[in-house]
Design goal:
The complex is a heterodimer of chains A (306) and B (188). The mean pLDDT of chain A is 88. Chain A has helices spanning 34-54, 83-90, 129-136, 175-181, 184-190, 192-202, 209-217, 219-231, 239-248, 267-274, and strands spanning 10-21, 24-30, 59-60, 73-76, 107-116, 121-127, 140-143, 146-149, 163-165, 169-172, 206-207, 254-256, 259-261, 278-281, 289-292. In chain A, a hairpin with a 2-residue loop joins strand 1 and strand 2. In chain A, the strands form four sheets. An eight-stranded mixed beta sheet of chain A has the order 2-1-5-6-9-10-4-3, with helices on both faces. Chain A contains ten helices and 15 strands. Chain A has 306 residues and is of the alpha+beta class. Chain A has two domains: 10-183, no CATH class; 191-292, no CATH class. Chain B has 188 residues and is of the alpha+beta class. Chain B has one domain (11-184). Chain B is built from six helices and six strands. Chain B has a six-stranded mixed beta sheet with strand order 1-5-6-4-3-2. In chain B, helix 2 (23-32) runs parallel beside helix 4. Classes of the chains: A alpha+beta (306), B alpha+beta (188).
Chain lengths: 306, 188
């Protein structure tokens, strides 16, 4: 995948932090000198190199997948789940706040916004674990031949960013960092009603009433709903085939007035069926095996992962 | 986004930029002279009030360039405010120039009046009004932020010192920061 930005021709580098405040989150810019700007550019380059080394063809971020700590994924910037991060990327003239670091415990992320010589913008973001970490630890330095505590307040930046955002995609190196900074947990739970409505339109023969209440309270169920909706493959699901797969994979569903009713304890299993995570194999005739996939990717006719 | 009370930075720098903007008054006072204070003191004072703030202004521009204090400014709307210089001329230069220092009370009155003006220029962020900029071929635009329904987009306006003749809406400019509200574009 290509980065819509020229990392070797950067004309402006700005730095900023995201802060948790009483009235919500805020993002402000802080002026930094040329050396810090250089370090931020280096971080962005290192991040892109790590992404390129991980995969040429990254998979799309899926909220229901269990991703590894470092894994190159992407998410189109126009997607609903990208809303929070997109807002930061597209914001113009972020307010300057020189005092933004006066209370480092409030800082939850830091970011760099860069502009290349074609006036394209790149936003790079990192969860601020180091900023907070330094408050708890004490730094020492060598002065003459003795170690001394560093009295000044010191902020340490990392070697790379968690994600890069260009005009088309969010390039994710650390999915957990993206989920944290993009407030994915909250966004996924907030999106439950819309996701529910969209799925319900396709599966009119399923009673979703208790599923919605369950998903509002359980984030994994909410993630499954977001994933099922984003796959856009619920439209022509056959009722009989769905019932059969549920039965074969150990999900007990009932039926009343022509509608499938899912008991609360079976909801996760049912959502896993819809999210193509429960399946049955019968390689040995007469001995069917049931599986639940923690991770899955669709393959095409040639056997290539899509 | 949380609403915060924005604290304008670079207070001392803005004060010196205001002093730089009123430096033509000291040139006029120096040329005119007075019967109360001996020339060697008065001229030295006037010369210092002309030279020091302008050296600072020059150093501020140089420092901003050296530290790469550049920002991208997205233009929502821009207004050319050359007329501000006229207001500045009539509101400040001409009335104060006319003061005749015949007694120490006149000096005190002039200095207090000047203090009020300096405070207002400093407080209202009018430190971009500088005849020197006009003499060097710069114009001053007030740049308003775009109305893009993005909660994070800055809501404040900036004074942009530039050699451009006009600035279109939607343009993205790269300018050096002289203060939180004043930017200078050195290459258009």
């Amino acid at each position: 995948m290509k980065l819509e930005f020229d990392l070797s021709n950067i004309s402006v580098t700005e730095f900023g932090v995201g802060r948790d405040e009483d009235k919500g989150q805020s993002f402000v810019a802080i002026l930094v000198d040329g050396q810090v700007q250089g370090a931020l550019r280096e971080m962005a380059t290192t991040t892109w190199e790590a992404m390129e080394a991980d995969s040429d063809n990254p998979t799309k971020y899926d909220p229901s997948e269990k991703h590894s700590g470092t894994e190159y994924l992407y998410l189109p910037l126009g997607e609903e789940l990208a809303a929070s991060v997109r807002e930061l990327h597209q914001a113009a003239n972020l307010p300057l706040e020189a005092q933004a670091l006066s209370d480092p415990t409030a800082v939850f992320c830091y970011f760099a916004r860069m502009t290349d010589n074609k006036k394209r913008r790149l936003t790079a973001l990192r969860r601020a674990s180091q900023f907070k970490g330094l408050l708890k630890s004490r730094l020492i330095r060598l002065v003459s031949d003795a170690l001394r505590l560093v009295d000044d307040r010191v902020f340490k930046i990392d070697n790379d960013f968690d994600l890069l955002i260009d005009s088309k995609n969010i390039h994710i190196l650390r999915p957990s960092g993206f989920e944290f900074a993009g407030k994915l947990q909250e966004a996924i739970r907030a999106a439950v009603p819309q996701n529910m409505k969209a799925i319900q339109r396709d599966l009119t023969y399923v009673d979703f009433e208790n599923i919605e209440a369950y998903a509002r309270a359980h984030s994994r169920a909410a993630r499954y709903l977001a994933s099922i909706r984003s796959q856009k493959e619920t439209k022509d699901i056959d009722k009989a085939a769905l019932k059969k797969l549920c039965k074969n994979t150990g999900v007990d569903v009932g039926e009343r007035d022509g509608k499938l009713r899912i008991p609360d304890e079976q909801i996760m299993g049912f959502l896993e069926v819809l999210d193509r995570r429960r399946y049955e194999l019968e390689l040995v005739k007469g001995s069917p095996e049931r599986f639940k996939a923690a991770s899955r990717s669709k393959i095409d006719a040639a056997g290539e992962a899509k | 986004m949380a609403n915060r009370r924005h604290s304008e930075g670079l207070k001392a720098a803005r004060l010196l930029m205001v002093l730089s903007s009123i430096s033509p008054l000291f040139i006029l006072w120096g040329i005119r002279g007075n019967s109360l204070i001996p020339d060697r003191y008065f001229l030295t004072f006037c010369a210092l009030m002309v030279v020091l703030p302008n050296i600072f202004l020059w150093m501020r521009v140089k420092t901003a360039r050296k530290l790469q204090e550049k920002r991208e400014i997205v233009v929502g709307a821009a207004e050319d405010h050359r007329d501000h210089l006229l207001v500045y001329l009539f509101a400040m230069l001409l009335p104060l120039y006319a003061i005749d220092f015949r007694a120490w009370r006149d000096v005190a009155t002039a200095l207090v009046a000047l203090g009020f003006i300096v405070f207002l220029f400093w407080h209202l962020n009018l430190h971009y009004m500088n005849v020197l900029f006009a003499a060097l071929g710069f114009r001053v635009f007030t740049v308003y932020p775009p109305k893009d329904n993005n909660q994070l987009t800055g809501k404040g306006s900036y004074a942009l010192i530039t050699r451009r003749v006009n600035i279109s809406s939607g343009e993205r400019l790269i300018a050096y920061r002289l203060s939180d509200t004043v930017y200078m574009e050195t290459a258009a």
